[in-house]
Q: What sequence folds into this?
């Protein structure tokens, strides 16, 4: 079973993202939620997460800090990541791709945008 | 209202429409935009504010929604059916609405080669919104017959 971690300080945003994923057909998954980067990193370190979907603007440890921690760890660096944020523009996208982010979605998120991101990650064999 | 293509007003129109249609499935119409006018707020209205950091704005954007509409928005976003949302759910939903709206606004006006930041939302309830801006424009919007208000720092027009 695919384990998907959704990190966003807004519970509303986490619920919307999960609902969009379920609409795309990802119903037989285990969804985990984190309200900030510290909480997300702790869950990731326990192992077994197949996909991280994260916001950038979060308290305690922001999305960029979380991504740097994940991508600099040899054990975690292959974890596929989708960023869903209100801060995405071409300059930010360039920076995020250089960190190793697989896909970036601008809020408001939709099932179609998430499906496109996940299909592109699957086509590249990053998750199956 | 009609807007000049590429104008700040058009960016506001698109940001507001896209945000509300996607998150709460409501059509929002911009009624008028005025300088420094105080919104007519009920004592139980909801407000949220977010600091915008890209120069030259450096001010706070705010969204003010009457209680009845806020309950309706949160019910739609969270799919609550007939259950009334909690205060925490309304506050979080309004913060996420403003967060999304702010991002869309800046994405349309800030240069694509400039990284921009916004703060974390703060939200509350009451007829006195503790605005941090000395200069702002009030965007008076209609959802059906009800008004919601967006307070945009005047410096946004300098982007």
A:
């Amino acid at each position: 079973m695919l384990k998907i971690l959704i990190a966003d300080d807004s519970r509303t945003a986490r619920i919307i993202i999960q609902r969009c994923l379920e609409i795309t057909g990802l119903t037989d998954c285990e969804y985990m939620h984190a309200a900030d980067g510290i909480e997300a990193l702790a869950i990731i370190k326990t192992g077994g997460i197949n996909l991280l979907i994260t916001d950038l603007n979060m308290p305690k440890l922001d999305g960029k800090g979380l991504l740097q921690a994940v991508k600099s760890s040899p054990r975690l660096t292959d974890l596929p990541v989708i960023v869903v944020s209100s801060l995405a523009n071409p300059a930010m996208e360039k920076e995020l791709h250089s960190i190793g982010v697989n896909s970036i979605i601008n809020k408001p998120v939709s099932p179609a945008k998430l499906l496109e991101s996940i299909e592109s990650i699957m086509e590249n064999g990053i998750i199956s | 209202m009609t807007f000049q293509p590429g104008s700040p007003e058009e960016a506001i129109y698109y940001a507001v429409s896209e945000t509300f249609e996607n998150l709460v499935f409501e059509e929002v119409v911009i009624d008028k935009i005025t300088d420094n006018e105080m919104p007519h707020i009920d004592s139980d209205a909801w407000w949220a504010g977010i600091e915008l950091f890209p120069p030259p704005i450096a001010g706070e954007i705010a969204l003010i929604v009457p209680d009845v509409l806020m309950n309706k928005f949160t019910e739609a976003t969270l799919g609550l059916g007939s259950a009334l949302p909690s205060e925490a759910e309304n506050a979080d939903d309004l913060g996420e609405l403003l967060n999304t709206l702010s991002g869309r606004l800046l994405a349309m006006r800030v240069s694509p080669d400039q990284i921009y930041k916004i703060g974390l939302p703060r939200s509350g309830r009451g007829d006195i919104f503790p605005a941090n801006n000395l200069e702002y424009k009030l965007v008076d919007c209609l959802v059906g017959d009800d008004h919601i208000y967006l307070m945009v720092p005047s410096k946004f027009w300098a982007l």
